[in-house]
Amino acid sequence: MKTKSFAPWLTAGAMALGLAGFTTAASASALDDVMKARGLTQKDLLAAAKTYTPTGGRDEFIVFSSGGQSGQVIVYGIPSMRILKYLAVFTPEPWQGYGFDDESKAVLAQGKIRGKTINYGDTHHPAITETNGDTDGEYLFINDKANPRMAVIDLKDFETKQIVVNPIMKSEHGGSFVSPNSEYVMEATQYPAPFANEYVPLSQFNEKFRGAVTYWKFNRKEGRLDPSKSFSVELPPYSQDLSDFGKGPSDGWSFTNSFCTERYVGGIEKGRPPFEAGCSQKDTDFVHMINWKKAAELVAAGKAKKINGHDVLMMDTAIKEGILFLIPEPKSPHGVDVTPDGKYFIVAGKLDTHASVYDFAKIKALIDAKDFAGKDPYGIPILDLKKSLHTQVQVGLGPLHNQYDSKECIVYTSIYVDSQVTKWNYCEGKVLDKINIHYNIGHLMSMEGDTMHPKGHYLVSLNKLAIDRFNPVGPLHPQNHQLIDISGDKMQLLYDMPIPLGEPHYAVAIQASKLKPKVRYKLGWDSRTDKKSPYRTRPGREKVVVKDGVTHVYGTLIRSHITPEIIEVEEGTTVSLHFTNVERAEDETHGFAINYHDVNLSVEPGKTVSATFVADKAGVYPYYCTEFCSALHLEMQGYLLVRPKGVKASTDAVSEGQKYTKADYDKQIGTNVATQGVIDSVVGYIVARNYKDFAPVVALVEDATDQLNFAASAKKKSEDFAGKSDWQNATLWAQQWFQYQVKAADIGLRAKTYLDEHGAKVVK
Ligand code: CUK
Ligand code: CUA
Questions:
Q1: Which whole number is the average pLDDT over 98-121?
Q2: Is the domain 525-643 a CATH 3.30.70.20 member?
């Protein structure tokens, strides 16, 4: 039993730490006490041991979860289930300055629909770029169901780089899914509507309303979707749903299922049965099969029609060219998931208790032999369900989605109504295990479980309702992601994680080792265009330039000052602030917030960001850094002075409250000399060790060297003033010299701690 081995493991651990017998006994009894006090079982402890990540520990997998109506993406680690970041995508988010600086405003503006600003998204399905059918960790895509859009996030800095608007859809759902080498990102309609932006009465639903699948061309070198090379395939007005790309033997094909193939249009207010009744009359709906590689060739050959400036391969063409087929699927299907080897795809029908395993080889043979069971009202060939199937398995009530294991033929299906996960063998058609979840599971996600090489080990159940799982926080509950251990024969529930941000639908996990995010930007970088910013500014080159009636402030941020510290303009001036964070140190982000003007920036090391606004009201507006970046962070401040029109700038001297004498100067110099002693000893400690073997320490040393250079220049100014017996300025500069010393010492001590914790060796 695993539970029995727990105590010996603990003891062994304690002995490995070199603890005496007495201490071991004391720890064990303390553990018993904690268990008793908190009502924990051996099983709980085992689950805790599998998820607990000690301080400084890292996760094996990183998850990108849709943030639902928040329009964001949630990033967390597995097995710790610690949330690492919310990625701002379709929604303004002040912490990241997203939607508050000019650069990110431009990204959000790409998501305008017919000129209208949309400030939210309903994100459903994230997808990571793939190489040969396996996730490579370069880019992430996420769709917006409500306002058909697709976003590109660069995983080098976890920032949203692009939003594209679907040119023909009014609603979508089956996105984002990537082809095995990320040539295309797929997006399928949900609710049919006319492609044109015009009014069409519902009486013309069958003729004028349409669904579609859009294939967004991804330019990996640029890291952007290319609308000019993207295209769509017109589909009947069935409510298309989830999709997947084929791989291996099925590479070149894509699969999109649908519901409401009844083409019912509701109208309960006119006495007709409602949508939910009309849309579930038939026992089967259709999975759409599209040969996308051939479709791309047809579009390149000029066989598409331009609609709203976008290439659409019309149904007639698709049928004639033999690239579009339908297969019946039971009943109100939801997920369609291609197996890792690409030989099968599994469809789960929400109103059926079965999951259906389709055999791609059989389907291909039927298509090649033109063996069709009929045609739909639009003339699309329909394949025979029985002849296309490998098997059907009774998995439970309300099956939704499927995810694959690293073990051959093993799949996990989410069972919404039963609130369960069913583990089964799709090759042999056999149910193997079931586990209860809380409550009403939607998607589920295994580690890289939708790739050609799933990693197994863990499964996350993305539940729709949390109900009583957490401390109550009002009628709106958090979502619940449950971590399940799938390494053994029996599934084991490990952890419940509340997610307080929108309703996540799908999530994708990737081995953490595949992600290579950067620590800092090249100095003066516009992170949204991934180019040098035209507004980049080096320290000492700060300036104010009036151009075309706009006052451009080229400033810098570094611990612990904002340059310029004073900005003065006349009322009505358009001001464009450009700040470059000139830090090179890891995690030294500076913020910039200014009273009244709705300006709030996040400036990561190396980044240049801008904020343009009209100083429309005379007054005094303090600004400051919003990140507690150093001991003198609160002093990282300044003033925007807005003069009333026609009033001249004051030239009066500023009067300090404090007057300094030679004695003050000497005292400060004494402090500085003592501080230098501390710095020298820390530097001595570092350079006596193999610090160059530790990249983070090398970066810290560079940073400390910068600070000491600044200190040297302040020291020089101080001495010059002292030479002129100007004790006021000499003392102030001596104090500034001390500030740089403090920063250098702070960084040096951080480096020393790092070396101690990572076993650095003394070198001769
Ligand atoms: S959907 Cu929400 S549970 Cu948008 Cu993939 Cu199935
Ligand atoms: Cu920079 Cu606080």
A1: 97
A2: no
